[in-house]
Amino acid sequence: MGDLFRSQEMTLCQLFLQAEAAYACVSELGELGLVQFRDLKPDTNAFQRKFVNEIRRCDEMERKLRYLEKEIRKDGIPILDTGDNPEAPNPREMVDLEATLEKLENELREVNAYAESLKKNFLELTELKHILRKTQTFFEEALHDQHMTEEAVGLMTEEGMMAGGQAAGLRLQSVAGVILRERLPAFERMLWRVCRGNVFLKQAEIDTALEDPATGDKVLKSVFIIFFQGEQLKTRVKKICEGFRATLYPCPDSQAERREMAISVMTRIEDLNTVLNTTVDHRMRVLMAAAKNLRLWFIKVGKIKAIYHTLNMFNVEATNKCLIAEAWCAVDDLDKIHLALRRGTERAGSSIPPILNRMSTREMPPTYFRVNKLTSGFQSIIDAYGVASYREANPSPFAIVTFPFLFAVMYGDFGHGTLMFLAALWMVLREKQLAPTAKLSEIWATFFNGRYIILMMGAFSIYTGLIYNDCFSRSVNIFGSGWSVRGQFNQSLTPDQIRTQVRGIESLQLNPNDAQAKAWRANPYPFGLDPVWQVSGNKITFTNSIKMKTSVVLGVIHMLFGVFVSLTNHLHRRDMLSVVGEFVPQVLFLLGMFGYLVILILYKWAVYSGRNSNCAPNLLIGLINMFLFRYDKATNGCPPIYTGYQGLQTFLVLLIIPCAPWMLLVKPLILRRRQQMLARGGAMMGQQQPQPQMQPDAGVDGGDQTELGMGQQQDGGNNIHDGDKAVDMGAGYGDHGEEVDIGEVFVHQAIHTIEYCLSCISNTASYLRLWALSLAHAQLSEVLWGMVLAIGLKREGFGGCLALFVAFSFWALLTVVVLLLMEGLSAFLHALRLHWVEFMNKFYKGEGYKFEPFSFARAELEM
């Protein structure tokens, strides 16, 4: 937890890399994932950088890979994922990879174009086949139609169209084609209106759906044949067919010619089928071969592109033989970085070792926490509020316990907690199998990524459910109740007889002070709430009192812990002025007011019982009276809460009152005094040294320099990492001798003082949400049990079984949707607020920025 409590100590390094070895060195650092490079050319356009052509080549390779992936997924071919993580290929291998992808793309495009041409020919022949069949059917129906006149039959048949029509001065012509079925009604209306009813249309549907060669979709079409007379109508008909995108085909007039053409079309279709199947098989072989290496190619191209993007952030020496980089890294990881640079140099075959300098800087370093699968979820919750400032105390290690615990206080139910725990346990045990599915849905990814948080929340909910003795709104009698009704009945009655009489009594009062009835056995329930309160009429009154006071106790402890965490920040920065001027008055203010209230709550629980409950004081009224210096005399023969309480409360009020001006004035006045002393000292130094000498720039000098090839290291002077001397960590105003605006300091301190004093009261009241949500959850669970499941439990016989099945199904559905999901989300958000606002504002600034190292693993996740 030490690495998680305070961020890693960071250093700013300067790298000098030989141009030939820079690619291999950056590749090794990308595999390591421990270095965050800085852009040394932020004002340079992306198209004016050194390696822009290489990045364009990578973009082109990615385009080809996406094209291959689209074709592979279109055919439903599985992409092989062996889980291998190949290294970034050398620049020379990049040329071979480009050639391979170029060859695959060209071959696939040629095969696709050839297959599309074949499918287009196949579609045309298939449509022509259907036209020949349907037109033959049209003519046969015309010959056998008894309702048609002799003249009409003569005109419709081919003999009439060729001979009879000429004898009568008539010449009928026909056009045959295929059109989409949904366009046919509009097509028919247009023909009727444009040709004014002087055409005869005959149409029939094609039974089987045809494949569109361009899109691959199945479409429904119809065959039509249009009879008309004259060239003018012929022109109009063809224009209408063109407008509706109907395909026209030649249709012979004689039956013999149609039969001969049909035989020829069938032969060509068979030959085309053979060639098309061969083409499709070849395409499948090409795609299956590509599918085996597609994921590896994606990884290689992604790594190459990431390397060149990083190299574009470097400065290039005037001779183009050396690249200069600056990067943040953890001090503990310097040895690993040295080894990675050495491996990269050896891989490139370079004889000149890279040089690593540790630089001094006053720039705020990035914040880096080492997290694992358990702690990453809680760290994400903290980072959502704000990334911790450099070396600031991190709330995450405490939130691992406090966050699920406060959630469970609001959600305490053994049954619901068990369901939540088992669901999270299933995700944890099968996380390897379920990890790929997290990319399919954002909602599912949220639950899966927070599986350890849900697991902890479920476990703590089980614990608090046992404390509340609540399991789906029912209590469980494990150890035996400390209350008994036997003393109120005849001692000679058997237990069954007593139960019978109890059922007949509408209400029964148990008085712990009645020695004769012996209702209270004087042996408290060993763990949690006594189950007798489940059937009592004043259950809500009793549990409300306990939960409300418990919420105040937990809230004050939580806030006080946050104030003490702020002490660790002050001590880490060696800021004793903040310890005296902020921490001490804050602790005295919080303890004197609400710490005393917590002690009174615990004292009241320990001292007062059923025998003297009538003398128990009202703590809220007593707290108000304490600040009014009003002390009521004992009434009804009840003694005061404890002897000497007036003097102690007066002392506490007198201790609390000066805390506000203490926080407001002490720190600004001391800072003002320091500034005046520094000003006097500077004036005296100026008199002694009227001509100050120029100091060398500490930006690069004084750092640690390492020549990896020779293994030499020089110790430097002041840098950011030795005692945090070079970076302003917010240790107080006036560090490093800079001038401070005292008016601004007073305003800032006044705002801070007012905020703290008011937040102590408002935040304590805010913790009452623990009581409110616990009550709401218990009542919702009680309502679901009483109004849904209890209906099925009261029925008997076969009808009762059916009613129980329906009631249980409905109850289970509402339990999951309302109590597990909606109530769980509500409690989660309230626990989040208690940490962000009530706990973290006591010590957490969150003004840092995240350490985002150059890592191939991060690039693969983004892909």
Please provide a brief summary of the model.
This protein is of the alpha+beta class and 863 residues long.
Please outline the helices and strands:
Layout: H1 2-5, E1 10-18, H2 19-32, E2 35-37, H3 52-74, H4 91-144, H5 150-156, H6 158-167, E3 172-180, H7 184-194, E4 200-205, E5 210-211, E6 218-219, E7 221-229, H8 231-243, E8 247-249, H9 255-311, E9 315-316, E10 322-330, H10 334-348, E11 355-359, H11 373-385, H12 396-411, H13 414-429, H14 431-434, H15 442-449, H16 451-468, H17 495-504, H18 539-572, H19 576-607, H20 619-628, H21 645-656, H22 659-688, E12 705-707, E13 712-714, H23 742-766, H24 769-794, H25 797-839, H26 856-862
Antiparallel strand pairs: 1-10, 1-11, 2-10, 3-7, 3-8, 4-7, 5-6, 9-10, 11-12, 12-13
